[in-house]
Design goal:
- This protein has one domain (2-68).
- Helix content is 33%, strand content 37%.
- The protein has one helix and three strands.
- The longest helix has 25 residues, at 44-68.
- This is ABC-type transport auxiliary lipoprotein component domain-containing protein.
- Residues 1-62 form the ABC-type transport auxiliary lipoprotein component domain.
């Protein structure tokens, strides 16, 4: 997992960009990229919730990609 961007813009959004790899036994390595952005207001709670949502979307993309053997875009 290579997190290339983990930004907060108060009153606008939280964003996350990551490149990650999966390797199944006997198969080629899969390299995927996930970029997500979640709207947030100026409050700390909103910004933390937005980052948590982004991390959840990243985890779902990794899990889904592992299950199907190809890169899955975050919802």
């Amino acid at each position: 997992m290579d997190v290339q961007r983990f930004d907060t813009v108060p009153g606008r959004y939280a964003s996350l960009d990551a490149v990650w790899r999966l390797k199944r036994v006997g198969q080629a390595e899969l390299t995927c990229r996930t970029s997500v952005q979640t709207v947030a207001d100026n409050s700390i709670t909103s910004l933390v919730n937005a980052h948590q949502a982004n991390l959840r979307k990243l985890a779902e993309a990794v899990r889904g990609s592992a299950g199907r053997g190809s890169c899955l875009q975050a919802a």
